């Protein structure tokens, strides 16, 4: 199945938070968005961001053939919604992934910024997945996560959403996968800043967990392949 295409036909203004919030929790989500949007309206993002599409493979195709840019330069909140609102999220095939990463960083383990990193991964029920990813993306680009990691000299590099059978696997990537304090701070911030109705109901691995990139099967082979291409 071909991945859905991005067609950005016209600019979208910064939308009213009530247009995207979960109507079952209007007060908490509206407060979250109003707080963030109030900070973002006057100024561009501190970092620029890129939307990527990652097509699932059985391992027989080269990674560069599966990964491509959807939109290269998201510099402010209006551009974010111009892309986000025009993307057919409901048409993403199972096991395909969309990433939002700092411009210049590729969403692969072998990128220099990711070599020693890892990510928090959340298994989110389909009914909540899009709202969860929307909030995670806004919190990431608004530097809500980055602010708590500054003293640890760590960086949040991007977020991802990957479609599974009855859940989405949503990830928050950071640069220092061995910094336990940084990892803990990031966990606390994610859980505290998410709307209450979107927070995981338990702390077990079936709900969310942290994993360093070098703990993944295939990491060593990916790094060796990258080195061989230099």
UniProtKB/TrEMBL annotation:
Residues 1-29, 205-230 are annotated as: Disordered. SUPFAM superfamilies: eIF4e-like. Keywords: Initiation factor, Protein biosynthesis, RNA-binding, Translation regulation. Pfam families: IF4E (PF01652). The keyword Cell membrane does not apply. The keyword RNA-binding applies. It comes from the Eukaryota. InterPro entries: TIF_eIF4e-like, TIF_eIF_4E. Residues 1-24, 211-230 have a biased composition (Basic and acidic residues). Belongs to the eukaryotic initiation factor 4E family. This is Translation initiation factor eIF 4e-like domain-containing protein.
């Amino acid at each position: 199945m071909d991945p859905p295409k991005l067609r950005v036909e016209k600019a979208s203004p910064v939308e009213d938070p009530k247009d995207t919030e979960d109507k079952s929790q209007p007060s908490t989500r509206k407060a979250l968005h109003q707080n963030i949007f109030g900070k973002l309206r006057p100024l561009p993002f501190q970092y620029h961001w890129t939307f990527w599409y990652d097509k699932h493979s059985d391992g027989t195709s080269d990674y560069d053939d599966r990964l491509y840019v959807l939109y290269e330069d998201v510099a402010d909140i209006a551009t974010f919604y111009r892309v986000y609102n025009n993307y057919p999220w409901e048409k993403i095939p199972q096991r395909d992934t969309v990433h939002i990463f700092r411009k210049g960083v590729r969403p692969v383990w072998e990128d220099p910024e990711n070599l020693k990193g890892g990510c928090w991964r959340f298994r989110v029920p389909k009914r909540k997945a899009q709202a969860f990813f929307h909030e995670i993306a806004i919190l990431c680009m608004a530097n809500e996560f980055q602010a708590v990691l500054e003293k640890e000299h760590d960086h949040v590099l991007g977020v991802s959403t990957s479609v599974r059978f009855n859940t989405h696997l949503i990830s928050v990537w950071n640069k220092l996968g061995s910094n336990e304090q940084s990892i803990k701070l990031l966990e606390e911030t994610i859980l505290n800043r998410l709307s209450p109705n979107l927070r995981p109901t338990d702390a077990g691995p079936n709900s969310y967990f942290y994993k360093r990139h070098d703990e993944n099967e295939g990491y060593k082979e990916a790094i060796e392949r990258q080195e061989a291409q230099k």
